Amino acid sequence: MTELTRDVVIVGAGAAGLTAANELKKAGLSVVVLEARDRVGGRLWTDVVDGAMLEIGGQWVSPDQEALKETIAELGLETYSRYREGESVYINRDGDLTRFTGEIFPVPPATEKVMVELIEKLDAMVAEVDPDRPWEHPDAEALDRISFEAWLEQQTDDQEARDNIALFIAGAMLTKPAYAFSALQALLMAASAGSFSNLVDADYILDERVVGGLQQVPLLLAERLGDDVLLGRPVIEVRTDDDGVTVVTDDGVTVRARFVILAHAPILYPWIEFDPPLPRLKQQMHQHLSMGFVIKVHAVYDRPFWREQGLSGTAFSPYEISHEAYDNTNHGDERGTLVGFVSDRNADDLFRVSAEERKARILESLSHYYGPEALNPIVYFESDWGAEEWTRGAYAASFDLGGLARYGADLRTPVGPIHFACSDMAGAGYQHVDGAIRMGRLVAANIVEETRA
User: Fold this and answer.
1) What mean pLDDT is reported for the chain?
2) Which of 205, 215, 400, 429 has the fewest C-beta atoms under 10 angstroms from its C-beta?
3) Is residue 284 part of a domain?
4) What is the pTM of this model?
């Protein structure tokens, strides 16, 4: 049995936990980071599969993500723009493909008018939402009691307009059906990115990538902590008393500290035994949070053949198995990589069939966008975060109907020496690496302030 003593113990070596640990260390506090996995990074994971470098987890950097951009620059990492030259493609309800440029999908003029009006209305509503305090919106309770799907149905009878607007939140971000989360949760998602228009603009939200992969951010942050990062140490117990906290791992490592930061997805809290138990309100709140579900599909080809057709690689359709796809070719790579996404109920259906049939159906969907060459990648890989024991879904946790207004204000509230920090509870940068870094900074600042009080 190993016994350690630190000022702060951090559970989870993702961007939030490692940011917090580095900030605390700078402030002169001693730390140790306990990570259940055999690697650092959490939902950031860059790996080589069959000779191809793949961003299995998060990867994009957008202009509004200031905390992430500051960290990338401070770590000396380089970024490059996502390939976007040429035309995008859209497939409508009838399966017809249209090439287009710009942000608005090529739909009939009446549908386009409705979509533009809905985007303008949502932008106006989002402007009234503080992403750190969405529950303070004057209509928060009413907006949290109606699903985003039902809200859209109140706005228009145009089904294609509703399907496309829902896609930007449901499929592309929360990865849940639009009937499963509230209008308030949708507004928070948009507010966390600055506006609904930003979510609509793929060139904005998926602007840049890091040369060599985004997992380098946590890898370099962990490097600075050296032996104070312990891998393969799932935490099973958190005990608190008047003197602080005792944290125990499944292999008997015991850490005595003044504070603990739980820097992992909140849906994993039930896997830890708390003594005394977490307050009733926290326990209730955690039952109203759940992860989304998405398969991230990587298809590598001998060359980016779609560029020869004048295509950017950007593709959308709420009616396809892969509802969106992009050119994900690595910096300096002669091969071409496509990344596609299969969300919520489509993903459910695909895990009811064999792996071979799932691959065939997904590649068939990609071929609807790019043509028959998409059927034969030289490398194919599915990122299935729902099967990741220490994540259990993607991209992040969100509340069920009514949960955000009811419990949101308590999500980050410490319980004695127990603090909470992860992208799932961020305001700006919610469910992104940027939000994780912001939460890591915030909780570290709070603990430093507490130690100096």
Assistant:
1) 97
2) 400
3) no
4) 0.97
